[in-house]
Specification:
Shape: globular
CATH architecture of one domain: 3-Layer(aba) Sandwich
Strand content: 5-15%
Helix content: 25-40%
Order of helices and strands: HHEEHEEHEHHHEEHHHHEE
Distance between the termini: 29 Å
Number of helices: 11
C-alpha cells in the first residue's frame, strides 16, 4: 500500500492527538538554521513546519491535505521519490516520521538532496527497538515491518548525513508512537492509538493482543516493576534520530 493510500485509510482521525512538540521542534528548526525556503516532504497536516520560513509542502494523501489548517503552507500532491521541482530549488528540505512509509526511501532522500541544499529528516533506528518497552515486551510484530528496508546507516550514507539522537520528553505533546513511554495508560485509549500509524500496519489482532497484555500488566503491577527506572526520567532515548545533511 502506498503512502497516499495508507493515509487516505487512516488519516481522518490523525490530527486528534498529533501536534507540534516544542522541544523536538527546537532541535529540528535549529538544524534548518539559515534556511529561508523549506520543502516539507510527506507533510501531513503541517506539524513542525517552521512559522518563520517560506514553506512548500508535499503530501500525496488527499485526506491528509484536507486536514491542513487555514493559512498553512501551500501543499502539492506528489511523492517523495519524484519531487516536481528543479534542482536546488530550496534552501532546505525536511521530512518527519514519514520515510518508513515510502516505497523507496533512499530514492526519496536523494530527491530531497537534489532539490535542496540541506536535508533534515526525523526517523527511527529500527535496530534499536529493544529500547522501548512497548516494542520489546508487547509488539514484536513491529520488527517484521522493517525487514528488507534500508538500515539507518544506509539511509544516512545515501545523502551523507550525520545522525543526531532525539530525546523524547516524558510529557511529549505530540502523540506519536513513542510519546507516551512514561504514561503507559495512554496506549489503552483507542483514540490515542488511532493517531499512530503502527497499529494499522501490524493489524487488529496484534494490536488487541498488545493492548490486552499491557492492560493486564498495568493492573497487576508487572509493568511498573519492569519499568521502574523510567519514573524519574525527564526524557528518554528511544531510537528516534535526526538525519542532517
Amino acid at each position: 500500500m502506498s503512502h497516499a493510500q495508507f493515509y487516505d485509510t487512516i488519516g481522518a482521525a490523525y490530527t486528534v492527538t498529533r501536534r507540534t512538540e516544542p522541544r523536538i521542534a527546537t532541535q529540528l528548526w535549529a538544524a534548518l538554521a539559515g534556511a529561508r525556503t523549506v520543502l516539507n516532504v510527506g507533510a501531513g497536516s503541517g506539524s513542525y513546519e517552521p512559522p518563520d520560513r517560506a514553506v512548500t509542502a508535499v503530501e500525496p494523501s488527499a485526506v491528509m491535505r484536507a486536514q491542513r489548517p487555514a493559512g498553512a503552507a501551500p501543499c502539492v500532491a506528489a511523492f517523495a521519490e519524484n519531487l516536481p521541482f528543479e534542482d536546488q530549488s530550496f534552501d532546505a528540505a525536511m521530512a518527519l516520521a514519514t520515510i518508513d512509509h515510502w516505497q523507496d526511501p533512499i530514492a526519496g532522500l536523494r530527491e530531497m538532496r537534489r532539490v535542496a541544499r540541506r536535508v533534515v529528516v526525523l526517523t527511527k533506528d529500527f535496530s534499536a527497538l529493544d529500547l522501548f518497552w512497548l516494542d520489546r515486551d508487547y509488539l514484536p510484530e513491529r520488527a517484521g515491518l522493517v525487514v528488507d528496508r534500508p538500515s539507518l546507516d544506509e539511509l544516512a550514507r545515501s545523502i551523507g548525513a550525520r545522525v543526531d539522537p532525539v530525546p523524547i520528553p516524558w510529557d511529549c505533546a505530540d502523540g506519536f508512537y513513542e510519546a507516551y513511554w512514561r504514561r503507559p495508560e495512554a496506549y489503552l485509549d483507542e483514540d490515542t492509538r488511532r493517531g499512530m500509524s503502527i497499529w494499522a500496519r501490524v493489524g487488529p489482532a496484534a494490536e488487541q493482543r498488545a493492548v490486552r497484555g499491557l492492560r493486564e500488566d498495568l493492573a497487576c503491577g508487572r509493568w511498573a516493576e519492569s519499568n521502574r527506572g523510567l519514573v524519574d526520567l525527564d526524557a528518554a532515548e528511544l531510537g528516534v534520530r535526526l538525519l542532517v545533511a
